[in-house]
Write a structure and sequence with these properties.
Blueprint lengths: L1 H12 L14 H9 L19 H11 L5 E2 L15 H8 L2 E5 L5 E6 L6
Parallel strand pairs: 1-3
Antiparallel strand pairs: 2-3
Helix pairs in contact: 3-4
């Protein structure tokens, strides 16, 4: 019991991910660093799925986090396939809209004005 408790405390203290599927992966150290810098968070089941290709939504989310952007709240969907109930909705809106915003205490942005742009 004590060993399990110590391991759990170690993960919290050192801000280790605890991903169940990265221990023996060649990229384990990099994945841990990206987790500590809040660039990646893994899946809700405690896995990272290091051998799975990333999706466009996951790439957008990681880029936003690396650039300290968003996620953007208070926006209407810009695309028909990006509904507000998707986990990536706020990050996609953040990455695809030129906007003015206020920064909330939780780090999220609330759009105050969208800048209309002529694209092409």
């Amino acid at each position: 019991y004590l060993r399990i408790e110590c391991e759990q405390n170690q993960y919290q203290y050192l801000k280790l991910s605890g991903f169940t599927d990265t221990y023996d992966n060649w990229a384990a150290q990099t994945i841990e660093e990206l987790f500590r810098y809040c660039v990646v968070s893994g899946y809700t089941d405690g896995t990272f799925k290091p051998n799975q290709n990333i999706t466009r939504a996951e790439a957008i989310t990681m880029i936003n986090r690396m650039l300290y952007r968003g996620p953007l709240t208070g926006a209407e969907p810009s695309f028909p396939d990006n509904s507000v109930d998707k986990w990536c909705f706020c990050d996609i809106e953040e990455a695809t809209r030129t906007h003015y915003y206020t920064l909330n205490r939780d780090g999220n942005e609330t759009m105050t004005r969208c800048v209309e742009e002529d694209l092409w």
